[in-house]
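Q: Please design a sequence for this.
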């Protein structure tokens, strides 16, 4: 199966199979072998091969096959691995245009035959695929995209495949890169030797220590344009040559694909971006893979350069073939030397950032925007919430902090809090896909992920909050919290801030004044208190003891409930007061309010759906910012980055008292897929610095917005809790009259300029800014600069 020197190079110091001459069977021998061993009768003609012997066999009815006669020095185990891999690919992805193995007449997959020179060779047969090879600079952009997708598909098809020979020593396996050092001396130019020595030193220092942590499997390791066939429309019609297969980091498969493309084309980094976009459309890259990509590319180019120089010294008669890739390889290594490490890494990073926000997407047909709006109204009903923007947005995909519409336009998402670690985070996506492909079932069976999730969640909580009840949404979580509180206290009284939102169930809608019908009064078992708005609320910052005065309203609410014969059950508070306008009172307010409620016999429920999971930056949970310990904590869909999963976390004594009266069960609450998604979110937050980034970016954005406030009179106040940020717009800073209409104009103007924000508060005059925790400084600057331009257009004199 192996056709070139590059496919058989062992690590330095091992016996070199290329020293053995190739097999020398005649065409007549090949025809006889094909008929006798594989039952295929046809005419033989030789194919180009350096060290093996490959013969095309065409039958009378036009079917084509390739008889592959291995070099007698080849490792039989490696040959068997190639055969088994082809069989595995044919089973796992039958539509992938890879060669198919032809069985022998006795139902095997190879025969061992003695050649004319008396040496034995392993012989196999595969199908002849249509098409031709193409040079990298011949490939158009769409082909690069599909090339990357094909590489990812092949990697997926090989997922789960293993063979004892997969660890065979091979210089083309990047994990053996340091074995190149004794061979670097064959590079004739001293400056170029120094570049390669630097590359290998960086690999040893920065890549090798983390290489074992990367996703790994058996990979093709050589899916270049030389090993693919293309039809006249440049669709991939064949994948050949599995001779470089090895167990290695999965990202090395992608590296081998773009190695030649980048060097042989003038659009070096653009070709990387397009090919990566195709790859990511099938298998999203992980952050740790992107982090080492620049170094792995340098190592791969260095490997080609060193092996080429080494082989030319050994086989000068074949120099033209051996050095075929040298021009492109040195184009990239010389470019790296000239631009320097920092600029080279920046270009790789920019290409990969763009690639992971690809604009290509296959979307279900929906018709025009107007048609979809009408279908939505007709099919989903008139009660559904209105669309966010005056000009409806048809989104088809997301990545990181970005969303993309059906025309490929990108929007910086600074509004949606549910994808807390970014849209389509690859670690979360992979966790969901992996578990969904394995098992998903209800919670009446044992499953380790649910237990691990509960352990990890309780480990983040104050002492005593030791019991986790898993459900599917924040509304369910708050509904269950309400049932717990009512059962344990014996009360039915609820207390919420006066424009709060906590969910959509019947019980929780009654605890969500934002959802109450217009001009309605509170349900008889619910009281509201003014949200602690120190800017334009009932009690303001400039008043002495303003937080105490807000807390005193809790006593008034308790008295009102008592007057109706209602005992307190639950005080439910969103720690960020998001629906009330994103408020950040001093911790003393909530401490005082909770104390008063508990003294009356009620429980405190901290609703962390919008303000938890690291959004505060300084703390994982919003209630920690206030220095209070809840009786019950509720979590929502950010827990799974949007996957339906939520939780109630409380004390065992509360659950025990509840269980004496009733059994509780949620069929798919805490199902294996949901739990794996949640574990992946926790992994990302803990391992990728999400809280630190929320602190840093939240502080930077707030500071930049305060600078805008000094220039734009429309901004009355800026307040934030990490990456939960409110910008209150007022018509007049003295009167502090809410600028509701103006906020709507700003909201839509931002959308037209590619940045998504929302509005909140009773008067919808507070810009609600809640980007994913992965937002970068550059993206934060886009947010602030765009907002600045919008304000300037409304007030050019600013």
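A: Design:
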């Amino acid at each position: 199966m192996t056709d070139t020197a590059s496919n058989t190079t062992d690590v330095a110091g091992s016996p070199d199979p290329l020293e053995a001459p190739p097999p020398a069977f005649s065409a007549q021998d090949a025809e006889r072998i094909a008929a006798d061993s594989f039952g295929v009768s046809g005419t033989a003609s030789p194919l180009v091969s350096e060290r093996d012997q490959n013969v095309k066999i065409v039958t009378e009815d036009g079917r084509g096959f390739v008889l592959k006669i291995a070099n007698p020095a080849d490792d039989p185990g490696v040959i068997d691995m190639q055969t088994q891999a082809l069989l595995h690919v044919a089973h796992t992805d039958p539509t992938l245009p890879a060669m198919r193995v032809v069985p022998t007449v006795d139902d095997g997959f190879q025969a061992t035959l003695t050649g004319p020179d008396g040496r034995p060779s392993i012989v196999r047969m595969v199908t002849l695929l249509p098409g031709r090879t193409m040079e990298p600079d011949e490939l158009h952009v769409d082909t690069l995209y599909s090339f990357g997708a094909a590489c990812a598909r092949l990697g997926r098809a090989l997922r789960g495949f293993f063979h004892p020979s997969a660890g065979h020593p091979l210089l083309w396996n990047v994990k053996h890169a340091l074995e190149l050092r004794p061979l670097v001396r064959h590079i004739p130019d001293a400056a170029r030797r120094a570049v390669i020595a630097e590359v290998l030193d960086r690999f040893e220092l920065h890549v090798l220590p983390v290489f074992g942590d990367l996703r790994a499997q058996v990979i093709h390791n050589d899916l270049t344009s030389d090993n693919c066939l293309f039809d006249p429309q440049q669709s991939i019609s064949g994948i050949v040559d599995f001779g470089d297969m090895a167990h290695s980091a999965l990202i090395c498969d992608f590296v081998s694909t773009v190695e030649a493309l980048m060097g042989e084309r003038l659009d070096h980094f653009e070709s990387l971006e397009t090919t990566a976009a195709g790859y990511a459309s099938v298998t999203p890259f992980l952050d740790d893979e992107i982090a080492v990509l620049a170094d792995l590319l340098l190592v791969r180019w260095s490997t080609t350069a060193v092996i080429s120089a080494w082989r030319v010294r050994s086989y000068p008669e074949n120099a033209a073939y051996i050095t075929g890739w040298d021009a492109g390889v040195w184009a990239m290594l010389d470019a790296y030397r000239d631009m320097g490490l920092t600029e080279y890494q920046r270009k790789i990073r920019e290409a990969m950032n763009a690639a992971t926000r690809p604009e290509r997407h296959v979307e279900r047909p929906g018709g025009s925007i107007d048609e979809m709006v009408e279908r939505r109204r007709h099919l989903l009903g008139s009660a559904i919430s209105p669309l966010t923007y005056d000009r409806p947005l048809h989104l088809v995909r997301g990545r990181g902090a970005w969303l993309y519409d059906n025309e490929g336009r990108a929007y910086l998402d600074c509004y949606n809090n549910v994808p807390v670690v970014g849209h389509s985070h690859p670690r979360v996506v992979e966790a969901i896909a992996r578990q969904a492909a394995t098992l998903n079932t209800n919670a009446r069976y044992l499953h380790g992920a649910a237990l691990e999730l509960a352990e990890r969640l309780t480990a983040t909580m104050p002492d005593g909050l030791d019991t986790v009840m898993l459900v599917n949404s924040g509304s369910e979580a708050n509904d269950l919290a309400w049932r717990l509180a009512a059962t344990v206290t014996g009360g039915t009284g609820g207390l919420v801030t006066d424009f709060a939102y906590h969910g959509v169930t019947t019980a929780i809608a009654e605890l969500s004044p934002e959802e109450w019908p217009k001009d309605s009064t509170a349900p008889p078992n619910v009281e509201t208190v003014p949200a602690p708005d120190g800017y334009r609320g009932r009690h303001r910052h400039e008043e002495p003891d303003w937080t105490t005065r807000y807390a005193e309203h809790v006593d008034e609410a308790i008295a009102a409930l008592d007057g109706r014969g209602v005992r307190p059950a639950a005080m439910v508070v969103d720690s960020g007061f998001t629906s009330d306008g994103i408020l950040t009172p001093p911790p003393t307010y909530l401490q005082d309010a909770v104390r008063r409620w508990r003294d009356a016999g009620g429980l405190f429920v901290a609703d962390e759906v919008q303000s938890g999971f690291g959004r505060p930056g300084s703390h994982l949970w919003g209630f920690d910012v206030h220095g209070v310990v809840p009786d019950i904590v509720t979590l929502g869909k950010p827990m799974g980055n949007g996957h339906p999963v939520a939780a109630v976390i409380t004390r065992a004594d509360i659950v025990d008292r509840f269980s004496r009266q009733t059994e509780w069960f949620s069929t798919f609450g805490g199902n294996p897929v949901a739990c794996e998604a949640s574990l992946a979110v926790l992994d990302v937050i803990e391992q990728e610095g999400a809280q630190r980034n929320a602190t840093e970016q939240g502080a930077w954005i707030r500071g930049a917005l305060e600078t805008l406030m000094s220039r734009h009179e429309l901004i009355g106040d800026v307040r934030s809790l990490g990456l939960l940020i409110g910008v209150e717009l007022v018509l007049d800073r003295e009167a502090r009259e809410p600028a509701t209409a103006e906020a709507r104009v700003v909201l839509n103007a931002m959308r037209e300029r590619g940045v998504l924000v929302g509005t909140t508060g009773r008067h919808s005059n507070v810009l609600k800014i809640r980007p994913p925790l992965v937002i970068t400084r550059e993206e934060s600057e886009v947010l602030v600069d765009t907002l600045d331009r919008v304000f300037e257009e409304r007030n050019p004199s600013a």
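Q: Thanks. Anything notable?
A: The first strand starts at residue 43 and ends at 46. Residues 1-15, 358-363 have pLDDT under 50 and may be disordered.
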